[in-house]
Every structure is written in C-alpha cells, then in structure tokens.
Amino acid sequence: MHGLINQSIQGFVCDTYGHTVWEGVMRQIDPGFAEFEAMLTYEDDVTIAVIDAVSNALDKSPDDVLEDVGTYLISHSKVRAVRRLLRFGGVDFEDFLHSLDDLPARAKLAVPDLILPRLELRDHAPQAFSLMVYPLPRVAVAFGHVVLGALRAMADDYGALVFLDHRGQSGEAEMIDITLLEAAFAEGKSFELGVRASS
C-alpha cells in the first residue's frame, strides 16, 4: 500500500483524536516504526491492522473509520491538495461526478506511483447515479467507504443536497447510489483555480 494512503489514516487519527490515540494504535500493532513515510510502500497487512486498531480505539466499525478518513481528506485544512484536485473536476456537483472516471489519471499526474481505484459513474435517471468503485489489483483493502466519505464532504463543499448509500458489492466493484436532490441547496465553499501567494 502506498505510504500516502497510510499517512492519510495517520493524519486523520492525529488531527481528529490526538497523537496519544495514534501512539496507542501503533503500540497495539507494533510494526517496528511510529509513523508512516509518504513515499514508501507498505504491506497490505499493515494497513489492515492499522484500520482494525483504529476501529477498536474509536469504538467504530472499520467501514465508519474509512468513511471518516474520506471526509477528513476533503474537509480538513491540512489536506487541501485533495480538495483542490477534486474541485478541478467541475463547477457544480454533477459536473464533479462526471469527472470521477478521470480521477485516477489526474492523481497520477501529481504522484506518478500512486494508484487509485478505478471509478465508473453510471447514469440511471436525471439526478440519479451509481458510482462503481473497483478494487485495486492484488490489494486487500476496499476503498468504497473512503469514497463515500469524500462524496459526502464534496457535496457539502458544493452546497448540494445529496442522498448517498453504500450498497455493498456488485460484481467486482463496490456500488454507491447517489441521488442529487438539489444542486444548489446551500451556498458552496469558495474555490479559486489559482493558489494565492501569501503576503
């Protein structure tokens, strides 16, 4: 598993629950190090052990932990680059949804050795979609709930009222049902294409 993914879980725990909780997680799994390095690769078993240990520490299911990680990646000020990458996908939430098929390729432009799950959006009716989240080859961690959390946060970012439902496995992929109830339900958060230089 790419170190950036493991580091995202670490950042979520530290920034949301504190370093003491993270230290307890690492003591429990005892991988031989205290923190993940972004540019290293780790065995899937380590990532799975971390998710299970965080789940136990927070008294949440692993799926809920992964969904919270997805929300953190969009909404926390320390990881603005992920939000920016996704906001480049469109001017409103529906445009953003239709850009998700291209997300793994866009991510590779930023981090060439980062492989994200293949995403496939399916239109069923006006404002009704499903998003298929395919597993990574030879990787045991499923990412559907991370995507679900990111979608919830992005809907809030765009000011859209959206109903999301993780439907579980559908063939090879995890399926997320998406119903766009109102595209402009609330005022979205501001977003500028250029990064403003600090004075």
Q: Which residues form runs of ≥5 with pLDDT under 50? A: 195-199
CATH architecture of the largest domain: Alpha-Beta Complex
How many beta-strand elements?
Answer: 4
CATH top level class name of the largest domain: Alpha Beta
Q: Any idea how many domains?
A: 2
If you compute it from the alpha carbons, what radius of gyration comes out, rounded to the nearest whole angstrom? 17 Å
* Beta content: 15-25%
Morphology call:
globular
CATH topology of the largest domain: H-NOX domain
Spell out the helices and strands N to C. Answer: HHHHHHHEEHEE
Strands of the biggest beta sheet: in what spatial order? 1-2-4-3
| Helical fraction | 40-55%
Number of helical elements: 8
Looking at CATH, the homologous superfamily of the largest domain is H-NOX domain
Structural class: alpha+beta
For the biggest sheet, the summary is: 4 strands, antiparallel
Q: What separation lies between the terminal Cα atoms?
A: 38 Å
- What is the mean pLDDT? 87
